[in-house]
Design goal:
Rossmann fold, 41% helix, globular
Chain lengths: 293, 293
């Protein structure tokens, strides 16, 4: 049976280190400050924002949420971001996605000052990722890389197969893991909905990363004996036996996969907590750089 | 025997179209203008710059080379670029690489106005490539994509294996070919010097792209029967029988490869001419956008 990679525990370890960094910055009169902009009242977004704010406050990172109405104009939103860009007391700016359809998401992301872009979604930060320059790496890919490193799973020379080509996970993670760097230097394959014969690819993976957003799409027979499986999926499936009427599952069919894999991340409790920990990491980094502490 | 993909001929077709575009712009009082900055006297760089300028002039694109001495300071170089950024008559700026060791290449690339970055090397343009936004795509990857499209080689659902992870070819090409777009939608694997068992990867490729910069590293037995082989290598090998004492070869061992492959690009006369044609394409695009013609 596969070993469980405990994302909650690893995230706690990282946050313990960050807490010390925050105290150091505070002693230098810099209070790291993350501002989250939330447009509208999407329940899932509200939960995510609350989790981020809570994590920040637990580390003594100052955190504020700016709630904007669903019908806020793009101009008003850009004006809000502009004032956050200019505010020296703000170190990290996060606009919770998705945005309402009338707002151009890319225009909004492009308006965030790259030095405060703790999500790592600004083109200039994405571009620096590719050339290996110092930048804010997007939180989920960075969390996965950290989780592997802290579990002593070496990516060097391994064949990593990523299922999913999103701008948030699949593509930046592929670019990160292929770099000639510690914690990387893997041979990387990116699969997606256009891939023919997905099984043939997943079965070649030493490290298989499921980031497609489809419940249980990766089952045991698609996995090589002894592979490491990282499940990025967060899918809601109906479950009448649950109080809520649903439960959250990953992209991997956990039971069949854990018979074949050597190590696997659970959902929940795997990649999710790592993503939030890395958002805190990026916020502390932004504060340090902007305050030159 | 493999069909030869004639890069020279395809590049000529593209340039014929571009010539019409240039005339249209000229009729609107916009003369597309490419400025090349050449630092020092590296003979290879001088040849490349001359080829680019010659190609521009043949299309009635205005082109000028600014020659700077090897010992130019970084400050002076950045000042030169700044004045080109501000000059409304300049549409494309290309700094010929490599630069002397005392100059920070990344700082120089980052100083070019993204709207004039016809090489597509600025982080903001690299980042937009990843998210599928309109941008200047780097010339060699774009040339390869165009060469495949104009040879009616469909990448959709194919397994593309790229050998080489450079910022100029391998990484941007991988990101381009994996997009959910026409001329892309391939499953993409990136191999490199850290790859274990390279043959196992290359033999899986429907389309194999050799961009490692090592003469003859891909031989026939490493190629799947019927695969398409694109050779990006430009390597100088000793050849006493040649007047120059050397000849230019690719990364692919042409003779053994062309027995196995269904189609192959020669070196020279394959990817090289395409790269220059796409530089012209980007220059015309920059002129059109900046003049709003």
């Amino acid at each position: 049976m596969a070993a469980i990679i405990d994302g909650r525990q690893i995230a706690e370890e990282i946050k313990l280190d960050l807490k010390k960094d925050v105290e150091q910055l505070r002693n230098l009169n810099c209070v790291p400050n993350l501002v989250v902009v939330l447009v509208g009242k999407d329940p899932a977004s509200q939960i995510y924002v609350r989790m981020k704010t809570k994590a920040a406050l637990a580390l003594r990172i100052s955190s504020e949420t700016i709630d904007l109405p669903t019908d806020v104009t793009q101009e008003q939103l850009l004006k809000t971001i502009d004032s956050l860009n200019k505010d020296n007391n703000v170190h990290g700016i996060l606009v919770q996605l998705p945005l309402p359809a009338h707002i151009d998401e890319k225009a909004v992301i492009n308006s965030i000052a790259p030095a405060k872009d703790v999500d790592g979604f600004h083109p200039v930060n994405r571009g620096k990722l590719q050339t290996g320059e110092d930048t804010f790496l997007p939180c989920t890919p960075l969390g996965i890389q950290q989780m592997l490193a802290r579990s002593e799973i070496d990516t060097n020379g391994k064949h990593v197969v990523i299922v999913g080509r999103s701008n948030i996970v699949g593509l930046p993670l592929a670019t990160m893991l292929v770099q000639k760097q510690a914690g990387a230097n893997a041979t990387v394959t990116v699969c997606h909905t256009g891939t023919v014969g997905l099984d043939n690819h997943t079965k070649n993976a030493d490290i298989l990363i499921a980031a497609a957003g489809r419940a249980g799409m990766i089952a045991g027979p698609m996995i090589k004996e002894g592979a490491v499986v990282i499940d990025v999926g967060v899918n809601r499936v109906d479950d009448p036996s649950s109080d809520k009427g649903y439960r959250i599952v990953g992209d991997v069919e956990f039971e069949s996969a854990s018979i074949v894999a050597s190590a696997i991340t659970p959902v929940p409790g795997g990649v999710g907590p790592m993503t939030i920990a890395m958002l805190m990491f990026n916020t502390v980094k932004a504060a340090r750089q902007l305050s030159q502490a």
